[in-house]
Amino acid sequence: MIGKGRLFVLQILVAVVAIAIWQMVTTTGWFGNPKTMQFFFSTPVEVFARTVKVFVDGSIWRHLGITLTETILAFAVGAGAGIVIGFWFARQPLIAAIFDPYVKMINALPRVVLAPIFALWFGLGIWSKVALGFTLVFFVVFFNVYQGVKEVNPVILANARMLGMNERQLLRHVYWPAALSWVFSSLHTSVGFALVGAVVGEYLGSSAGLGYLIQQAEGVFDVAGVFSGMLILAIFVVLIDSLVSLIEKRLLKWRPTHDIDTKA
Amino acid sequence: MSASVAVRLDGVSISYALSGGGRYDAVAPCDVAVADGAFVSIVGPTGCGKSTLLNVAAGLAAPTTGTATIYGEPLTGINGRAGYLFQQDALMPWKSARDNVAIGLEVQGIDRAEALTRAQAMLVRVGLKAFGERFPHQLSGGQRKRVALAQVLVRAPKILLMDEPFGPLDAQTRLIMGELLSQLWQADRKAVMFVTHDLDEAIGLSDRVLIMSAGPHSRIIGDFAIDIERPRDLGEIRNDPRFHRLHKEIWDVLRDEVRKTYGPEAAE
User: ipTM for the complex?
Assistant: First the structure.
């Protein structure tokens, strides 16, 4: 393994090389007319300048705030519903069996086709985006909780029973933590999906948010605007993802950090 | 009189429905009685159903026929007077060692501070004074077994049920755990049903050793009183001539059963 510092330098190097190539392609004329190239790819300097500008003049904050709100709402509602229904299905095999084909059908549906329907039902404000994010987050959390509760180690369960736990105590001390650990292990995926739902929803019809900004820029062939929007989105995603990692680390401190699996 | 018998199994048999139809008769009707304060081991070849018998006494499995009686009362549901030490890891991985021990008290309605104090005291007794904050994955196999033992003992059960509890441990750790168990039991005599396939361990720890025959239709085929006085030194007991005599007597009965499990008849 290489050191952390060297790894970071190498990671930065990748970005530097990529940006350098981009700059060369769009300004030197070696690959074609710079004017044409800039129309298609803009330039790194331009994209960077545009990104700085929206932060400096403050116009971006409102959009970021809206996208963030939608993401958080979609995640909270989706995860909440996923946990409750996942628990319910896992504890009631009959209910699970009855709904099984429908769950599969709805989950197989590409969510993008739902976006216009949601826009119709919930309007062009944040709720249609929350609904879209919800349909993505719900299934990730639902399947994880369902699996988590179903696959609680039977020995731990038998032991808990022998320790005198009643059904309610089993739920609280065994099923709940077991299911929660599955939810947290899928946290990156589900938070990512909440964001995808929000941005795609905005892209398909809205008046604010990062998806809206990108869509607007595309509408007028403003490539610098599109790339700038993507850059902001990428930074936003990385920030949220590292926040999730932080939360995960705190909440799952009982887990082995490396997979040194113990046989006994 | 029946009240002095901690666990009584009368005509307990266990059979399973097979997925391909038909039934598998694991255990033929058995009578077992464990006196209050007695340490009884059940030894038998693998797959003879000795663990299943233990699960019946625990109330985790229902017998196909027969009844389980605990201190004179018929057992329905979980046996609340018994503590069960499992072969596999049964600690809750999301709770620290101390919380794992305390939870058995907390669910009885004892307040948390009191439960934690008693849990810590019990961890000290099993030699884990400084390990209360650790999570199970941060402990060795032997240490996890100690936590599990503390978890069971802190509830002060009248009966201890143990299913090859030291099976997964290495030989030295087994010996040390055996000594710890022996010493704790010496201080507070509970009725013990101890399932093992290790004859040395069974003789070293027990007052009585029961032998089960190979399955299917397992039954009790031997009942030996171990008349070696206590306290015993588990490391030294192997040199005792009485140990040799008992070992030979029991092994003469057990050997044929172990062979049956692996021999050509096993295919039947």
Answer: 0.87
